[in-house]
Design goal:
Strand content: 5-15%
Largest sheet: 5 strands, parallel
Radius of gyration: 29 Å
Strand order of the largest sheet: 6-7-8-5-9
Length: 469
């Protein structure tokens, strides 16, 4: 073979990149690592980061991969995936694949999907899916904290007849975007498969319906209705903890849907293993598909979410205010949305621009911040970081303008946010007397009243030490 095997793999990736979208390439093919190729046995070994990636490629891209490998390696090869099963201990498992069978397998699955679409639920009445049409994948911004659940959810929505990863169990803390994601799965499914009977329901409402069915002696009708669903999406399943009758009823519904290849999507604020009070047989079913964690979004994802909402709502918010909101929302998407809505309302009612002071005012009412008592060291650290000076320089006798401003601001904030007397503050800021502290506070207060940019700077510093970790 004239071309080195690793170069053949690079050529393979280049050709694949032309056949799929950039997002698909980055998600499924870029993480693959070329391990080895034996020219005698024609064995190609590719390392993939997880069994999920391997299964997804085999399910959706094996035909494409097979055709391109034939082009680049120039012969029929034996493909083996080296799957990372334990990243902490670097344990892998080799799984053989047979790309030669890809075309037949793909065709068979396509026929199966089309056959099911043609025969499903023709006689069932129309069903309101109870989905929020505004919660879609289009406005569900991707980040590191939600990449896997979003990718899995989108795959399920695009291929609902494929029973892989069933059920999908999504968990994460309040406000991280679980409800948006499971709604997006339902909305996308209905757009692509209009005849699918998709239903979103909260676990609490499901339980209320069940209680009413028991009281009216129509439990069988209740169960039969849910057994007609093609994609059942249940939010906040932790609500059923210690509710034995509800669990038992859902167990029968789950079994029927699962056996018949119907989709089940569940969301909770904790993983199945932590659902104490949930029956063991239900927990094993929750865990038999794929469990995907939604983490709290980091600051960058919060900024991306905010910018997306700002563009949609036609708002004008300064970059530093956006940064402030992202840092203050404690990783809660719900808080982000609440703050933006409140800012918009304040801006309209009072005909005012959205600036740092307005944002701080709204944040105090919308988001719980760290209330740990501040120290003079905390304040000095944040002030010095903001003005890019050292603490020792602030303590010195230097009269350089930047040091004087930093020193005065530190004294002002110390008097405002601590219970220390002026004499104590002066002593801790370079050994000044109390009259220096009072003069500094007056200087800063006067400048705040006349200098809008300086006022915003002070607000920004206050935010930083209110959110100290």
């Amino acid at each position: 073979m004239n071309v080195l095997p690793d170069r053949c793999w690079e050529n393979t990736l280049a050709l694949i990149a032309k056949k799929v979208s950039p997002q698909q390439f980055d998600t499924w093919f870029k993480p693959i690592v070329f391990e080895s190729y034996n020219n005698e046995t024609k064995l190609l070994v590719l390392r993939v980061p997880s069994s999920f990636v391997y299964e997804y490629i085999e399910e959706h891209y094996i035909e494409l991969l097979s055709q391109i490998l034939l082009q680049t390696f120039g012969q029929k090869i034996r493909l083996t995936y080296r799957v990372m099963v334990d990243s902490e201990h670097k344990k892998t498992q080799d799984i053989q694949a047979d790309p030669a069978d890809a075309q037949a397998t793909s065709a068979a699955k396509a026929w199966s999907e089309n056959a099911e679409v043609d025969t499903q639920t023709k006689k069932e009445p129309e069903l309101d899916p109870q989905l929020n049409p505004h919660q879609t994948f289009a406005n569900y911004i991707e980040g590191e904290s939600n990449k896997l659940p979003r990718s899995v959810g989108l795959s399920i929505a695009e291929h609902p007849n494929n029973n892989q990863f069933n059920p999908l169990f999504i968990y994460g803390p309040s406000g991280c975007g679980k409800t948006h994601l499971i709604n997006a799965i339902g909305v996308q499914t209905k757009q692509l498969y209009a005849k699918k009977r998709v239903l979103y329901i909260s676990a609490h409402l499901f339980q209320q319906q069940f209680v009413n069915a028991v009281l009216k002696n129509v439990t069988n009708d209740f169960i039969k209705f849910y057994q007609t669903i093609d994609m059942l999406i249940v939010d906040d399943v932790q609500t059923w903890v210690n509710s034995e009758k509800t669990q038992e009823t859902f167990f029968h519904i789950f079994n029927h849907l699962f056996r018949n290849g119907k989709r089940i999507i569940l969301a909770s604020d904790r993983p199945p293993v932590e659902l104490q009070g949930m029956s063991e047989r239900l927990l094993t079913r929750f865990s038999c598909g794929i469990i995907a964690e939604l983490e709290k979004p980091n600051i960058q994802l919060c900024i991306d979410i905010l910018n997306s909402k700002i563009r949609r709502d036609g708002l004008r918010i300064p970059v530093d205010v956006t940064q402030f909101i992202a840092e203050t929302a404690n990783g809660s998407i719900r808080d982000l949305q609440g703050v933006i809505n409140s800012l918009m309302a304040y801006s309209v009612v009072y005909n005012s621009e959205i600036d740092m002071r307005l944002a701080e005012r709204v944040i105090k009412r919308a988001v719980k911040v760290d209330d740990t008592p501040l120290t003079i060291d905390d304040i000095l650290e944040k002030v010095c970081r903001h003005f890019n000076v050292t603490v020792s320089a602030v303590h010195s006798k230097s009269r350089k303008r930047d040091l004087v401003v930093a020193r005065q601001v530190a004294m002002y904030l110390a008097q405002k946010h601590t219970k220390m007397p002026a004499a104590r503050i002066g002593k801790l800021v370079g050994g000044r007397d109390h009259s220096t502290v009072l003069h500094s506070c007056t200087q800063v207060e006067n400048r705040i009243q006349t200098d809008r940019l300086f006022s915003n700077e002070i607000s920004s510093i206050e935010v930083s030490f209110k959110l100290k970790k």
